[in-house]
Amino acid sequence: SEPDLIGDATRLPLRDESVDAVYSTGVFEHIADPLRAGAEVARVLKPGGRAVIGWAFMQPIHSEGQHFFNATPWGVERAFSRLTLKRSWCETSLAFLIRWGASVSDLVGRVPAQEIDEVCATLGRWDQLIPDTHKPYMANGIWAEFEKPLG
Question: Cα–Cα distance between 39 and 42 in angstroms, integer?
Fold first, then answer.
């Protein structure tokens, strides 16, 4: 119910190589210096430790005034360059993006809900046709799993 630790992601209050794993989702786009935060993850991970990171790419502004850096797959890799990339994948949905975009652009209520639903239903079908090789170019979010090299 309460966090175990509260701290600045660019200066984690943890010893070097003291953590087995880091899991972060929906955080890095809200950090003013995500490259420094990525280096901190590398610093606190034990050799062989893993980090799983989810980072916004094509998402509307959220947490106004505290949403700084969406990232491409290459940006995520750069932020965690001290770690070894094990795998990455993308959350890709045109329907999700348009529905969220309609809500933050004040279209909801100005456009009939049924029309938004119809557009999103069509886009949902299109989402199924996007080849995995093309998803990184328009992903809502980028996920990556990293490992800290041994020794």
Answer: 5
CA 43 distance to own-chain centroid: 20
pTM: 0.89
DSSP assignment letter at 150? P
What does the alpha-carbon distance between residue 101 and residue 150 come to, in Å, rounded to a whole number?
Answer: 43
List the one residue out of 62, 40, 39, 41 whose CA is nearest residue 52. Answer: 41
The distance in angstroms from the start CA to the end CA of the chain is: 36
In angstroms, the CA 97 to CA 10 distance is: 30
Half-sphere exposure of 33 (CA within 13 A, CB side): 9
CA gap 117, 119 in Å, rounded: 6
What are the tens digits of pLDDT across the range 8-58?
999 999 999 999 999 999 999 999 999 999 999 999 999 999 999 999 999
